[in-house]
Glutamate-1-semialdehyde 2,1-aminomutase
Amino acid sequence: MTTNEELFTRALGVIPGGVDSPVRAYGSVGGVPPFITSAKGAYVKDATGRTYVDLVCSWGPALLGHSHPAVIEAVQKAAAKGLSFGAPTEAEVELAELIRSRVSAAERVRFVSTGTEATMTAMRLARGATGRDLIVKFAGCYHGHSDALLAAAGSGVATGGLPGSAGVPTAVTAQTIVLPYHDEVALEECFATRGQEIAAVICEGAPANMGVVDPGSFNLAIRRVTEKYGALMILDEVLTGFRVSAGGMWGLRSASEGGWAPDLFAFGKVVGGGMPLAAVGGRADVMNLLAPLGPVYQAGTLSGNPLATAAGIATLKLANQGVYDHVDSAAQTVIDIVSSALVAEGVPFGIQRAGSLFSIAFGDEAAQAPLINYAQMQAQDTWRHPAFFHAFLDAGVSLPPSLFEAWFVSASHGEREFEAIAAAAPIAARAAARAVKPQ
Ligand SMILES: *Cc1c(COP(=O)(O)O)cnc(C)c1O
C-alpha cells in the first residue's frame, strides 16, 4: 500500500508544491494532504483506504454527493459516443436552456471550461459593451486567477498570505479598483470620482472565498450604482450558482430585493456536476457582442465538452427543491453540532452564513457579530484553525483546509455523517481551545 506521505514526496518532485491548486497543499494547516482515490456520496477515500466524511465536496460541485449514479451513467453514455467533437451539440443547447429556465436573467449562455474563463470573459464583454477599462472588485472576493482579478483575491491567495501574485503587470492591476466589501460609501465615492471610466463591478453572489459573508442588501446597492453610471454588474455565481438555490444567490434574494438583476453572470462548479465546465450568461444584447455575432472575441477547443455537458444536465435535472431543502437543513445540523462543541469548550467563534453556505470564524470579534469584510476576516484567531482542522481529520472528517473557505454539504449528507461529525466535534473544539496564540 502506498502512503499519502510517499505520494506527496513523489508529487513534490514533479509538481510544484505537489498540487495543481494551492489550497490542496495544506499550507496553512500543515501536514500531508490525503491523496484521494475515489469518492462516493458524502465520503472520499484516500490512498491508504481510509474514508472521510467530506465537507469540501470538490469545493462545491458535488451538490448531490459524489458519484451520483445518474450523473456517472450520463457521463459514461456520453463517453461511449466520443470525447470531443469541436462542433456544436444538442446537449449544449439543452444545458443552456436548463440554466435559463432557472436564471431567467441569463438570456444567453456561453460555455467555457473553468470559472476563471467565465469571469475573464464577462469582464471582456463588459469592457467591450461600455468602451471603458476599469473594473471594480472587492477585497477578499475571488474570481479565478486571471491577471486583472487577482488583486486582493481571497481563497488560496488569502490562505497563502500572499499580497496578490507575481507576474501580473502593473499596467493590468492599474485597471482594477479594489474596495472593501459591504462599504456602500466607498462604492458611491469611487463612482463619483471615476464613474465614467468604470466598465463593471464584479462581486460574488455571496462572498465565500474569504470565509462566508452574507451579502445583505449589498448586491442591490451595487446594482443601483452601476445602473446610475452606465457600468455593468457582473454577478460571479461560480460558487453560489445552483448551490444555494435553483437560481443561485440571485434566485434566493433578488425577488425580495426589488427584483434586481445583474447584466452578466459567471457560473461554474455545480453547473458542471464535477466536470470541467463553466459559463457566462446574461442580457442578450450584451452576450450577443461575443464572436461570431459581435466584436468581443472568446473561444475554446473543449468548450461545451460533451462529457461535461452530460454531467451538468444530469446534475441540474436532479437538483430539485428537495435537494436544496436537504442541503439547507444539513448545513444547519452541522452548524448546530460544531457550535455546541465550541461553546462547551469556551472557544470564541461566530458562524458566517449565506443560504446553505457557511464557515466558522474564530475570535471575539466574530463572536459579537458576523464579520463583513476581508480585513475583519484576516484579523481572526487563525492560529486556532490548524489544531481544529487536524483533530477533525484524525477523526475522519475532512474540512476545507483553510479558514477562508466555505464548508460544503450535499444531498448525501445525512444521519450517519452527522453522527461522525458529532463524535469528532468535541475533540476538535478541545484542540481549538488548547491552541496557543503565537507571540
Ligand atoms: C471557484 C471560483 C472561481 C474560479 O473557478 P475555477 O473553475 O476554479 O477557475 C471564480 N469565482 C468564484 C466565486 C469561485 O468560487
